[in-house]
Write a structure and sequence with these properties.
Number of domains: 1
Distance between the termini: 47 Å
Radius of gyration: 22 Å
CATH topology: Cytochrome p450
Order of helices and strands: HHHHHHHHHHHEEEEHHEEEEEEH
Number of strands: 10
Strand order of the largest sheet: 1-4
Number of helices: 14
Length: 407
């Protein structure tokens, strides 16, 4: 289905392991390594503050505010663009991406995934909804992918472009002396265009889903929320908000983040892989060309790895005797040379939001007409990513001091 929609074209996630894959992945590794990701921390802190201010003004719009946060961080990193209004064209693109993604459905849920020959059906054929959907969606996708790329090139020509993933790579290309040299240069430009949009389209939804899951975890597990707040108060005090310099001093907050990722991964089935040659796994013969789907949710709930895996217990990652010394769920970011190159960037965005929320807000259940807490169900919706079903909660300032800090 992804191939039918044209999303696999030059997208790092879906490229075969070729020279193009290696060169494309290098683009990401150069800009998104653990060390180079540090330059984006100012953006992440600023957007986390905007998020909590928006939640203070309209706490009933939780999902929309989380979506705006993740889209704003990624678009500023990818394109150097600052969101200035709710009608920002980049935000509209983010909304459209979510709409198109939801229409695809979970991996393996479409018959064309199992019988690729069906993609050759004409759009009018009964039951060929996926052909019609792709035909309608593909030109929209192409326009979205091109928009940010064209805007950055215009700004570079005017001398007004801000440093970003795309502008820095375009500058490197220009310094290489191939800015206007034929087919090879056009190929590199297309690769940069696709890479910047890939960062935008994948980073926005997964980060938003992960933070949304964290908020639900805080709501359903108030004891973990209180313990994390106590740690934040002890380390940071009352005169400022958290920043990345506090991260190593907040081990329980770190554990809380990883436990939420383990509890409900944003991508519970990861990305499908295809075998490049025949293989044998535990006595099972798997022929070349087979599609293999990694059940990440099963891995993060594996009883051989995690004690009482269905229990939300952030301390499990702490060394004994404080915890179980269990491994962090790195599998949620993929595997090997296919692992997510933006892992460090994503973790930083999730962490700064969590730490800031804990410092200023209490997240509690709403109450019914009789004063009883209304606890939402642990329900998730799945498409290419997994995110909590809409739920209501009370988001209130912890103190007048927190209000002054935000002001």
């Amino acid at each position: 289905m992804i191939e039918l929609l044209g999303w696999a074209s030059r997208s790092l996630v879906f490229l075969r392991y070729t020279r193009e894959f290696q060169e494309t992945r290098k683009i990401f590794q150069n800009q998104l390594s653990r060390q180079t990701s540090l330059v984006y921390q100012e953006t992440q802190i600023r957007q986390a503050l905007i998020l909590v201010q928006n939640l203070l003004q309209s706490p009933d719009k939780l999902e929309a505010h989380l979506q705006r946060f993740s889209a704003s961080v990624i678009m500023e990193i990818a394109y150097g663009h600052h969101v200035t209004s709710e009608d920002d064209p980049f935000l509209r693109i983010a909304d459209k991406i979510n709409e198109l993604t939801a229409g695809v459905g979970p991996q393996g849920s479409n018959i064309v995934d199992f019988f690729p020959i069906l993609k050759k059906l004409p759009a009018w054929f009964p039951g060929a909804w996926f052909v019609r959907y792709a035909k309608e969606s593909y030109p929209i996708y192409c326009r979205m992918r091109r928009y940010g790329f064209d805007e950055v090139r215009k700004e570079m020509a005017r001398g007004t472009a801000k440093p970003s993933f795309l502008s820095l790579n375009l500058e490197d290309l220009a310094r290489g002396g191939t800015e206007n040299e034929g087919t090879e240069n056009e190929d590199k430009l297309e690769r940069l265009e696709a890479s910047a949009f890939h960062l935008y389209e994948t980073g926005t939804e997964t980060t938003s889903s992960a933070v949304h899951t964290l908020v639900l975890a805080l709501l359903l597990h108030p004891q973990a929320q209180r313990k994390a707040q106590e740690e934040v108060d002890k380390v940071i005090g009352s005169g400022r908000l958290p920043d990345f310099g506090d991260r190593e001093s907040l081990p329980f907050v770190e554990c809380l983040m990883y436990e939420a990722l383990r509890w409900h991964s944003p991508a519970p089935l990861g990305i499908p892989h295809q075998l490049m040659e025949d293989d044998v796994y535990r006595g099972m013969s798997i022929p070349k060309g087979s599609t293999v789907i990694a059940n990440i949710r099963s891995m993060t709930l594996d009883e051989k790895t995690y004690r009482e895996p269905n229990t939300f217990f952030p301390e499990r990652f702490l060394p004994q005797p404080a915890g179980f010394g269990e491994p962090r769920p790195d599998c949620v970011f993929g595997f090997g040379r296919r692992a997510c190159p933006g892992q460090h960037l994503a973790e930083a965005s999730i962490w700064i939001v969590l730490a800031t929320l804990l410092a200023v807000f209490d997240i509690r259940p709403i109450q019914d007409e009789y004063g009883n807490d209304v606890i939402p169900p642990e329900e998730f919706h799945n498409s290419l990513t997994s995110h909590p079903a809409p739920f209501k909660c009370s988001i209130r300032l912890r103190s007048d001091l927190a209000k002054r800090l935000l002001a």
